[in-house]
Amino acid sequence: MIQVTYIFHSGFCVETEDSYYIFDYYKGELPVLNREKTVYVFSSHFHQDHYNPEVFELLKKQGVLPEGIKAVLSGDISKKQYPKEIDVLRVSGNQTYSLPNGTVVETLHSTDSGVAYLLTTKDGVIYHAGDLHDWRWEEESKEYNHNMTARYRREIDRIVGRKVDAAFLPLDVRQEKDYAEGMLYFLEKVQTGCVYPMHYWEHPEVIGQFVREYPQYRNMVRDTEQAQGDPVQPKR
């Protein structure tokens, strides 16, 4: 089993039996961690709302030693912003990496910047999209939006049929009528257990909107705002 705690925006902490995985910390309070477990800090790209090196200081304030922290950072993040005294794994898109605890990390190219992460842990499979999303916008040309959709689907097609226990996917109200297109395509193509919408800024009501409009996914979509140690039981 894995446990999911929402932090803020696209930030989550996922706890497994022997490790924590913190994704895209921007701001907010971290949960109280067991200092005996290794903490893996992931950032999908350099944007301010997805990478804030303050997270490493917050971990140290909890008494987590530098040797108990590992960073997995997208290659577009400047080395000047790397944490001191902490091991950093620098990653790029469409690659596979192994962590010291045996977790396999696969990356996809983002349609914005950086990467998305697919983690196969001993306790479950985790997908964090970062900013890999179908970013269609009303003000953009038909050509732009067509190319965006094609790029997004090409990346998701790399993992068609894979099983994911917990998926963290953008659901951005700023896209208006196209707000759900990226999530819908992912759910059509990837066998997903639980979905935690993210990147909705100050509009958590979009989660309820999505469930009302697409009730076939009602039992799959979790209320991100209520995810504090939310249990996810992998389906084998």
Question: What does this entry look like structurally?
Answer:
This protein has about 240 residues and is α/β, with parallel strands linked by helices. Helices cover about 15% and strands about 30% of the residues. It has four helices and 13 strands. It has helices at about 55-60, 140-155, 180-190, 205-215, and strands at about 1-10, 10-15, 20-25, 40-45, 70-75, 85-90, 95-100, 105-110, 115-120, 125-130, 165-170, 190-200, 230. It has a seven-stranded mixed beta sheet, covered by helices on one side. Strands 7-8-9-10-11-12 form a six-stranded mixed beta sheet, with helices on one face. Helix 1 (about 55-60) links the parallel strand 4 and strand 5 (about 70-75). Helix 2 packs parallel to helix 3 (about 180-190). The termini are close together. The mean pLDDT is about 95.
Layout of secondary structure:
Blueprint: E1 2-8, E2 11-15, E3 19-23, E4 38-43, H1 54-61, E5 69-74, E6 87-91, E7 96-98, E8 104-109, E9 115-120, E10 125-128, H2 142-156, E11 163-170, H3 181-189, E12 191-198, H4 205-213, E13 228-232
Parallel strand pairs: 3-4, 4-5, 5-6, 10-11, 11-12
Antiparallel strand pairs: 1-2, 1-13, 2-3, 7-8, 8-9, 9-10
**Strand tally, please?**
13
The residue fraction in helices comes out at 10-25%
Shape: globular
Taken in chain order, the helices and strands follow as EEEEHEEEEEEHEHEHE
Describe the structure using short key phrases.
236 residues; alpha/beta; 7-stranded mixed beta sheet; 6-stranded mixed beta sheet; 17% helix; 31% strand
